[in-house]
Amino acid sequence: MTDDLRYPVGKFHFDPNVTPATRRACFAQVREAPAAMRAAVRGLTASQFDTPYRPDGWTVRQVVL
After folding, report:
1. pLDDT at residue number 2
2. Residue 40, domain CATH
């Protein structure tokens, strides 16, 4: 993690050594992302959906809906 709110999960770092196994793992993450997002926001209130993740940032609603 980082303290820089522009990069809440850290800056992107390119890995030039991508293997078939790494590629399969990435595809699995993309495939599983919609269900994970639905589970993460299940039960949130309208107010919570309209909460930005950082000052002047996008809201939960803008990111996941």
Report:
1. 58
2. 1.20.120.450
> CA 48, CA 63: separation in Å to the nearest integer?
12
Dihedral in degrees, nearest 10, Cα atoms 5, 22, 33, 3: -10
- Would the pLDDT of 57 be above 90? no
Counting the structural domains of the chain, the total is: 1
Whether 58 and 52 have beta carbons less than 8 Å apart is answered as yes
Residues 41, 64 contacting (CB under 8 angstroms)? yes
Amino acid of residue 36: A
The answer on pLDDT for 40 being more than 80 is yes
CA–CA separation, 48 and 59 (whole Å): 9
Q: In terms of residue numbers, what domain contains 61?
A: 1-65
